[in-house]
TrEMBL record:
Residues 303-430 form the Root UVB sensitive protein C-terminal domain. This is Protein root UVB sensitive 2, chloroplastic. It comes from the Eukaryota. It comes from Eucalyptus globulus. Residues 67-299 form the Protein root UVB sensitive/RUS domain. InterPro entries: RUS_fam (IPR006968), UVB_sens_C (IPR055412), UVB_sens_RUS_dom (IPR054549).
Amino acid sequence: MKLLDKIMQKKKTAGEAQPQPQLQLRWHEAGPVHWTETSDSVSRRFQFEPDGQLSVKLLDDSRPVAHRVVDSFLNKFFPSGYPYSVNEGYLRYTQFRALQHLSSAALSVLSTQSLLFAAGLRPTPAQATVVSWILKDGMQHVGKLICSNLGARMDSEPKRWRILADVLYDFGTGMEVLSPLCPNLFLEMAGLGNFAKGMAVVAARATRLPIYSSFAKEGNLSDLFAKGEAISTLFNVVGLGVGIQLASTICSSMQGKMLAGPLLSAIHIYSVTEEMRATPVNSLNPQRTAMIVADFLKTGKVLSPADLRYGEDLLFPGRLIEEAGNVKVGRALHDVFRPSKINEWKEKLPEEKFLLSRGSKWIDMVLEHNATGEDALRGWLVAAYVGCMDKSSHEMSTQVLQDAYLKMSDIFSPFLAEVQAKGWHTDRFHDGTGSRFAW
């Protein structure tokens, strides 16, 4: 028995030691996993390397030259995996972004040429192009100081501030274009124009990240950012060429600038507006939260960022939405509540991170300092249910509040799950510079 036990033990030990080398040997014998795919007259070899990386090799491409040029352009200026690696609306956003940068660059050449004419110089178009970069870069420092305290507002409404940035830029450019008409006020007009352009540059850069983030679909934010900046650079160069051509021909006179300037500015503002309309921002702010709640109460469904984007008011985002309870967020606590009312609210809903106060025209909601998007959604639903249950009263009765709260509690878990499934980020709530409270 002892001998048999020893033999069995040796076999068992040998059996345990063998599997790992055998697997490695088989991997090396079989070689890396690879396959060939053919689509649209293009043959590619895909191969998984031993380290897990996927490599792609082009074997044959019989497409026409034009198709290959388009494919090369997409590879250089669009994120890897496009269109499956980005959210809906990215192509339209990119098209108008290209047009925006082209018109802006052309307009900057004309404005700088006008500035130098007003200063008594007679520059060539090439000189105007060089000086435009110097003037723009110099004013960025002043713009940073002025815009340094507006970051929270830009987080809340990046689309609105992006449009405002381009309006400021065109205002500054317009002042520069008109400066030859007032040579005695050259310093004032040039200074005001470049000050506005400096603020515009900072506002545009500050809103760039939340806009790019809304298109990122597979953790590819860096790729999106790099390709987006490549598109901007390409069409800025094209725009500078267009501007030089205009400055040498029809815009060599002041009359020509007065015709071309407004046209380029209109194209510029229209392009950035269409860019922002196509952008599916997926963070919660007061306007988007109200629209989500209103549509949910009306249809029982939650809008996705792509569904909601064209309904946003980009110029006046603070409008009240009756179907969502006419909620206004961010007023100071001492302007909304009396001390006795605050104590009553703490007794009614001690665990919640929002306070509600009903007035004659709207319902004020004040959030705790660490409230998230989920807390804002809870408060908004309660306010909306209160508005539906009692439309005539200007006071929020305890019974109505309790009924509204219970109704919100019954539906909130599936509602929140659907909100998150649609792609909304509920971990924070961007209310701009709105006031919050802390106990």
